Structures
1.
Amino acid sequence: MRDFAAVAIIIAVIIVAFAAALTDGYYMDIFILTCFYGTLAVAWNLMAGLTGLMSLGHALFVGIGAYSVAWGYTAHQWSPLVTWPIGIGLSIAVAIVIGLLCFRYGLKGYFFAIATLACGEIAFFAVSATTALGRSDGIILPLAKNPELHLQFIAKWPYGLMIGSFLTLTLLAGQFLMRSRIGYYWRSLRDNEDAAEALGVNAMAMKVLSFAISAGVASVCGAFYAHYVAFVDPRSVLGVDISVQLLVYAIVGGMGLLWGPLVGAAVLVPFGMFLRNFSFLQGSEVIFYAVLLIGLALVLPQGVSGWVVGRIGKAKAAAELPS
Amino acid sequence: MNQLLQLEGVSKSFGGLRALHDVGFSVEAGEIFAIIGPNGAGKTTLFNCIAGAQKPTSGSIIFQERRIDGLRPHEICRSGLVRTFQIVKPFLGMTVADNVRVAAYVHERRNAGADAVARAMLKQVGLDDYADVGADELNIAQLRRLEIARAMATRPRMVLLDEMLAGLTATETEAICEELREIARQGVALVVVEHSIPVVSSLCSRAVVINFGEVMAHGATLDVIRDPRVQEAYLGKVEAVAWS
């Protein structure tokens, strides 16, 4: 129950933040990007922190979602009702294929990370060379005749509502999974695969499931991004930058908990945008990220969320001690 | 036919190395059966073949009248045959109760039910006071008990115990032996790999001796360990037969 309480508090914070962001388009922009990266980081952590599968290729699924929308809309005027399922389905299918291949040959740890990184990079270069997908120039999504049906809004708050709701949904579903048989199986695989298999856990099926869910969520984020920015190019949705950013958010926020990476994103995304306000600090957020990452690795190896939960646990234990 | 587990002609080669050759024996329901043999004889390979971690090169392994050789470890576990590991493999990032809960999900899909099974199993092995602490806080004897609790939570007909008692004190050994006898009394067959002859002779009714990958002797424990060939292979040349 305590875990659900934590998620309930976080969802309350998301709602308050959304309400506060309604006052100003700039704040709404920060809110939207924080939710976008937060959702991605939570999905990534479902695999990495909770199943023990470190992916460095999640940009691939963001890209599949984004390009499904961009290509479907510009080439065929398909509505999101068509392009979103295509993106999600394609992402899940690709994740299952990559997963089956990697797990069949027992790729783990760094080897799995490198294999996923390679898949992401292959997609990056393949799309950069494909004329139908706009090559490295990308695709601009023009204004539709009936913009609302294509999720095109002048105001920013509908986008905030969309991504905020999706983040909330992801957290709730993720928390439900973590408290169910599947979540227990995932964590047992993370901690010791041999022991888990000997105790009846179908390792292959559970790992592929984790990969597929994570990829599906990432591709929804990518589809959302295409609508919000109305422009996709390989650099912004398929680049290795996204994959690495997720890693940074997860390490800063903490990988042991479902919502840990969200905390990382909530700290770093607004911070990065804040730094961009100062022209003499242009591009300096990378340096700040790096320093922060080194510092946190030394001081808080379980991340911010792990530290907070640890402090609460200690305070409780102290309160329960007989005086 | 109340043979629970039956091995016939099981062989396993790693390239040119013959780890097991034509191994055959059977285990009855509810008995405590020992696999003994010198270091490197192939006991752990035999174990891995039965539990599905390795696939035998040839031969058949029949459990509850069904061939299990070549099945995946999780399928063998679900058929009622579960193993423990010589080097304990706890889920260190989870609590003790959650460790057992993973195993309980084999038969209990509901969360509350799985948690109840886990806590009942922990009570049975005397770890109920530790249910909600992290598995990384247990000592080696407690981790061995945790392995037993996890194995029992899958509701097995047979448990394979790989050197469950290595490195424990005499008191800890006696306590765990008593628990194993209690488990056998509940009708669960136990197959143990064990080095300590006094433990084997007090615990196990029957035994098989493996030497250089082959069955050297098979039968009642006392007969087997009195066999001069076994004594020579397993213990070296002994002048006085201390165990008779």
2.
Amino acid sequence: MNPLLELSDVGIEFPTPKGPFCALQNVNLKIKKGEFISLIGHSGCGKSTVLNIVAGLYQATQGGVVLSGKEVNEPGPERAVVFQNHSLLPWLTAYQNVELAVKRVFKGHKSKAEMREWIEHNLELVHMSHAMHKRPDEISGGMKQRVGIARALSMEPQVLLMDEPFGALDALTRAHLQDSLMEIQKDLNNTVIMITHDVDEAVLLSDRIVMMTNGPSATIGEIMDVELERPRNRIQLADDPQYNKYRQQVLSFLYEKQRKPDTDAPAKKAADSDDSNEEKVDKKTGEVA
Amino acid sequence: MTTALSNIAWISPFVSIAKGEDVSGNIQTIIKTIGLPLAGLLVFLMIWQAAASNINTSLGQFPGPGDVVTQTKGLLSEHFTEREKAEAFYERQEKRNAARVKQDPTYVPKTRDYTGKPTYIDQIGTSLVTVLSGFVLASLIAIPFGIVIGLSANLYSAFNPVIQIFKPVSPLAWLPIVTMVVSALYVSDDPMVPKSFVTSMITVMLCCLWPTVINTAVGVASIPKDLVNVSQVLRLSYMEHVRKIVLPSSIPMVFTGLRLSLGIAWMVLIAAEMLAQNPGLGKFVWDEFQNGSSDSLGRIMVAVITIGLIGFLLDRVMLMIQRKVSWDKSAATR
């Protein structure tokens, strides 16, 4: 079966005053329809860059992305993005935010009544029907993210891109949203690429976990298949030896093979800053004297 | 109705006392919201009175609060007498015309406008019309221009020096140039509006463009990247992007600019009217100064206070519009 989405030899360089900075290179990945992929890695390793290239928000300077046989070179609703900070338009209600997307994508294909039904259906999917006509500043962070997901789903994307969708939420809300997402995924079977820095989230949700090496010139380090049966239940999985093996494998990649060179530095840094503080005080007293 | 009333800061405690809620707390609120401003005003009036009685000018003693009240009454009664005269004039004219038509049915009645001098109230009206015309004209230019340069960092860099150079220019510097240009270009046997009006309006416009341009541009340039990304993912066209994302998102900043602009417009107007002889408050002040009677300083003081009050009211009106239009209620509180 042909892959739905194919990244071949993707790399990107950003121009800087000190010459080009290579953020990403040799990223090769084939994604089948209906697959749920997580990208995990330390912050600054370029996982967001990969997502932005697939979204079309960045242009790869090397290689390319092909979605259903067409090369990706600009953003579009068939690759809907759920942004980390919900990015709802603050002057529109939840309904209107979804409406903006639906009108854009289905204009001419759906009648007014069908559009309304479709908007309401998508808000229902993320359990937001009760607060449909509230504006983002009137609902909680978790609810905003739900609306963000509804907006993305309403575009019926071929690939759903999620950029640390639950990163800004507290642990309980995050768990709720992960469960909601699994529930939706069971019905819709979307193709999803999700960025995360949460190992549990990655193992719980994904079919495959793509682990990225540290930048600069970051690339894919390892790819792990997660063969846990669905539906998955976080409580049962907590005791599951297979689940824990997967977890352990990701953790060992992140903290042993790809340990950030400066992760043991904080203690030293603190000491440094103490020194500099002392210096300042000294200077000050010197001036006073 | 009660909810509408209780939205006004100084009325709400009264409403709430009337409902029998928390009387002592509300009395404290009343003292804070009404008592303190009144006390401040009183102290100011006392200082004014004391200072006025110690300043002697060639036009007599500097007017204190009492003189200003007298002059205000004088100006108002002048206004009403003038209105009565005008009415009487039109009545006479009508009667005369009616009589002539009766005598000779072929007579086409002539109507002439009353040509009395404009009263203080008329002058306030002229000033308001002039300032609002200038301000609206400036806004119509400044907002679209601000959006266009805000959307493109390159255009912004290109135009920024021009904006920065023209921003601090005084209306007094513009006025002679504007006067000459208006005289050269605005030629008509039967002008719709007098030249002095056009001159004042354009001067006001030139001076009050800049805050709106700058604030709009900054508002547009600081749209969160995420919202721009949303627009890109939805493939909104340039015009849709402007209408659906850029405009609403920058509305709070646009209004900040508009309020600054209107404040400047009002300040500039007085100077412009003085020199352009547009029959508004500025001309009133100038004429009183030239007139040099013992009442003049008092009348000018009335104008000063009127100018202050109207400036304040204009800002409040803008604030009310902002609250109606803007989604960001927190930005509209001051």
3.
Amino acid sequence: MDQRLAELVEELTTSGEPQLEPGRMKELKRICKSSEEHISHAYHLLLTRLREEHAEMRFSAFQVVQELFARSHQFRTLLISNFQEFLELTVGTDHEQPLPPPKEVAQKLRKAAIKAVQDWHEKYGEAYKQLSLGYHFLKQNKKVDFQDVHARTVAERRREEEKQKRLENIYKEKVKRTEKEMEEMSQEIADTLTEMENCFQLLMPDPLNFGMNEIDPELSKQTSANEARPASPFSSQGEFTPSSLGCMDDEQPCCSKDILPVSQCVTADGNEEADEKPEQEELDGGKRSDVRFSGPALDDDDYQTFVRNHGLISHKYTLDLEISTDIKVQENEDNTAIINSVMDAHKLLRNKFWPSVQSWIQLLTRAGVNDDQLRCAIELKNKMETAMKKYKEMDISFKARKRKVMKASDDDDEDEDEDEFVEVPEKEGYEPHIPDHLRKEYGLEPQAPPKAPVAKASTGAAPLSSGTRLRGNEDELDPTCAAATLKLLRDKLPKLPSPHASESATSETANLEDPDSKRRKLEERAKAPLMPFGLDLHYWGEDQPSAGKILKFTSEHRFWAPSEVEEEVENKEITEMLKTRYITFAGKFEPVKHKCRAPMPDGTLCERQDRIKCPFHGKIIPRDDSGIPINAEDRAREEKMKFEKQAAQPEWRDPEFMREIEAATGLDLGSSKSNGKGQKKKGKKQKYPHLTDLKQQANTSRSRLEKKVFNKGAMKRVMKAMNRVDQRKHEKFANQFNYALN
Amino acid sequence: MLGLMAARQAGLDDPARLRRAECTRRVLSLELNKDRDVERIHGSGINTLDIEPVEGRYMLSGGSDGVIVLYDLENLSRKPSYTCKALFSVGRSHPDVHKFSVETVQWYPHDTGMFTSSSFDKTLKIWDTNVLQPADIFHFEGTVYSHHMSPIATKHCLIAVGTKSPKVQLCDLKSGSSSHILQGHRQEVLAVSWSPRHEYVLATGSADGKVKLWDVRRASGCLSTLDQYNGEKSKASSEAANTAHNGRVNGLCYTNDGLHLLTVGTDDRMRLWNSSTGENTLVNYGKVCNESRKGLKFAISCGCNPEFAFVPYGSTIAVYTVFTGELITMLRGHYSTVNCCVFQPHFQELYSGSKDCNILAWIPAPRDPIPDDTSEKSLPQQHVNPAYEDTWSSSDDEG
């Protein structure tokens, strides 16, 4: 029974579980119940378990103790007679003997032990003097607060408090800094926000301000796919459209009022695509409203032809206006600046202000002070949020910008680049404050004096007429248009040739061969590598007579001069350096696709993907699916090696045979040792597999390094080396007083 | 015991024999008793205890926070359980309280009207018990480790004071000044003790490992220096000459008859000396764990055969027989280092003070009732306290 008791205690305490196994516990209790002898035996077993340097073992042992303590007087007497040690082992009253790792379990053990002591004291304190003494000791000397769930001693609590205080101080400091930062930054943020707000206003007027006449033609609301175009002008124009629709409804066929806005819209939108319909070009000068009303008039005349012209089948259409909420702002010349500034502001908000405001709020909430500041920060954050949301909703498409960038890189558009360069100074004379997005517009009409004032008047927001004027411009811009050539002929800019002029000039002369050479050039360029600028490029094609010559100054001393001075020294290397460039050619990385695939002892194939040589199986050779080399000589070589290896091991040391002998004699003959690493690891069985492995925990990179670094041999070696260095120094400088001393 | 009583009645035995036998039995059965408690007054460790020799009723305790408390040990309540009440205390709020740790307290040997206390605040105070005012204060150069008043002196009224300085000072209560200086030690004097046999003989133990015996009438030098090797080895190594311990000597105690002197040192040894010859009796007590940096107060029983020594041993108290060096038992109960213990000779009780602020009373266990015919009745009464009962669940498989 004693044997069984020991087994039970060992099993119970090495389970590593937070709860005891009830079956075993029951058996243990039954054994203990049978006689006092067994109780004292169990007590001693448990005490040895409690003394183990493993918190899980102690915890389990403590739980068993708790069970027995509640049941047996004998056990209580025994335990209480050694209550000091019990407290040391479970509560950790001795600071020189702290509870062993793992930490969490130790904490749990401590809590449970303190709770148990309290319970025991309540129940048995009267009868067992030492128990109550222990309780008072914990309470008054160790100042354990039994109500405190964390079961901390005073020292721990004080440490916690100090930590808290330190944190508080840090927070205070941080808050102060934040306040300052906020003061500085909030103004900036507010400015940015206002800027953004204004830009939004410009890009898309507030629905409440729709009564205004000036409506950005660029602003269009996208509607459902089929009706998108016709709907846009109306929807943007707001409330008066339905009425106009209504009034048109009764007298005109539906299709007509459908169609016209289509064309109208195309023109008004100022799209850069070339216009198809000549009749619409004639409508240039007219205002949009005029167009609308002229449309039906035209229809009335011959809507049959009109229907046919537009490829319409029926003239009975129902118009569905689906005003979708998502807005799309198209970027074009007119609003580039605004969009740019919006983008900048948004970027600033997102990248700079947003994180900082976020961090302020975090810090202020964590510090738990300054609700004023906090409110301020939250307000800022909300504002920024709305602004950013708005920006997102706007969904600005940056197509134009991207195209422009591409153009700049494209060599085809060199002339256009020129074009930009050319126009600016020219215009400056007339209008110093032309906004960026209108530049193109004016660039080509410097000689139209009547139009200049109009343009000036409409710089801020493009008026309705801008669309039409723009159309005219476009005609001129279009090289295929007659208007353009006319224009070119008309304006003769003496110093700087107009882009079209140059283009037309070249196109007329070398139009035929140009595409060919251009393409070739393009191809070459695509092939050519991009190199950073260097000295060799700087002196490209130049011959430098002075390069590589080193000038030596003659000594200016009166009589102390070197015997002969070569004033100029030619250095080939330097000359070379100016003309050469080193280009490292590392080749291209090609991932290894093959595997070693040598057969392993466990039946699998080696998975290593080395390029040439596997560190375990030598040179990688082609093998078939079962790992046998494909080439005959490889196979033969492998066979030979295997044979040699077996020959190296004496016959009688056949591992199978050895194992049998071992099993029979019970002696370790080292058969497992000869059999590679895999088995060795398996052979080393953990003593208590359920417990947390403390060695594993202690086996950190730091400890391993420590083992290496503070290794006795290593220390000695280092010492020797340092001594040697010292010695050498001593030898070298022995005649100097400050080294001679040590 | 009945046999002893009968023999005593018949006049066969010396009357002292019964007493001695009973005393010994009681001392051997000392245990921590739940019936006796000492009121918890001290907020910090207890350094010293003293029971007045006249009645053996009042006990003084000195704490390391400078507090002195007086307890009444007598149980007049006629109930078995008794908590020794604190009659008064010189608390922190008292105007004349010691500033620092009180190292030694001692009653005036002949009367409870006066007691003395010495402290790390470099003073020795003579207190009037009744008004609780210091009657006199002696100031010293260094901290006071220990002082002692002769328990039998009739011709002088000297207090021997061991301080941080190597000189032992003798303060005369009659004149209120320190009258003598005894020079001879090299380091601080941690323990002093007057002989209970010769009123002029004083023993002092110092941190230099020496124990010296003085006759205070002859101030020029000491009577003898105790030598742990009894003069054999000292010829070879002059350095270790005449040392009683290899570490500091921090405890001295005469046996009751004054014939022997017991010393403890930080070399974890205890030695018994013949006080008249200064000879090491070479009794082996084994290791006596002693890590105290200050004086250690231990006690020797009185009126027993053999006599016992109660020595603080870490957080326990070891009980040795004085003359054979046998370790009888370890008294466990304290949770921290025990600093002092004192023996109450009339009722064979032991009181011990420890760093864990507890004063524990070790009381002789009551005799087990002799089982007789009425055992059926008395058995249930044995387990009056339900806490002593086992609570195994009744069903077999439950366990």
4.
Amino acid sequence: MAAIYSLYIINKSGGLIFYKDYGSAGRMDTNDSLRLASLWHSMHAISQQLSPVHGCSGIELLEADTFDLHCFQSLTGTKFFVVSEPGTQHMDGLLKQIYELYTDYVLKNPFYEMEMPIRCELFDINLAQAVLKDRVALLGR
Amino acid sequence: MQFFGGSEISPSPPLPTASGNNGHMMYVFNRNGICLLYREWNRPLHTLNAQQDHKLMFGLLFSLKSLTAKMDPTSVDKGNLGVPQLPGQGCSFHSFRTNTYKLSFMESPSGIKIILVTHPRTGDLRESLKYIYNLYVEYVVKNPLYTPGTPIRCELFDSTLDQYFRSHLIHMVELAKLMVAHHPSFPVTILITTATKPDNSTATDNQSRLIHHSCHHLPPPPSPDSTL
């Protein structure tokens, strides 16, 4: 049982800069994940256009038949989204935590170029721990 | 998907989970993307003209469907991204939420799409969508004068739909009364936004009782601590 199935991070222009799979069925190749990420970027933008009232900041939660997609957009336009089991709670907290890890271990890395794919060992290690902790917390609930 | 639970419309419409008459818009599309019905109750912001708006909405739903079909983490064979899928094929979605609105979506096996845009804190509207679909089958599809694929102009459908949305409001008034009875310290204010008919804009006690009697029964009262 997986609490979250996968994690995507896309930069402000819709390019996929980080993708990690945590046990979804079937293989998704690199091209597919890139396409999905940019598709999500556009859907997010269109949903703001269709808002009946002012001040819409895009989709936060998409409820599909077999999964939930939780999205968090940072102030700079970087979007973090996780695919989780339907009805999973507290995903906002996890997303905020991942955002913190991103600011600490990616943005503060002097060798990281902005808007480019993330290759930071420390980020990977800490992310794995955060996801594991979330999973343990889910089992404990 | 179960839509064929008998041709009769259930006598009591599903209870609104919404905490009020907070609907914004409603769309009905057929499988070719033609907007059969568009209703608007409360929409202060118009970014596009009506036709462009309908096109954008249909495009959003179409693309989101192909996205969810491809992203489905439980199926092994997902096909290629962007290949059109038949209604009911592949993983679809039933709602999404932004900070300002919630969109609930249903697609029938024949490709009729019903979309409700409501307040972001509205509950699950799948039952309401099914009920509206049943109304469509009863009053539009079975209408001999209706040509499929044309905008819906059926008086009975319109009036029943209006009545359904009005009954949402009445349920809310009843709920408010119940809340006041249990917690007299709670002030309850009901804001009624633009209504479709002038007589909807006031829901007096008298009127609510009147319509209440025309409803078949009121469901058992929810426990006072249940969330709205």
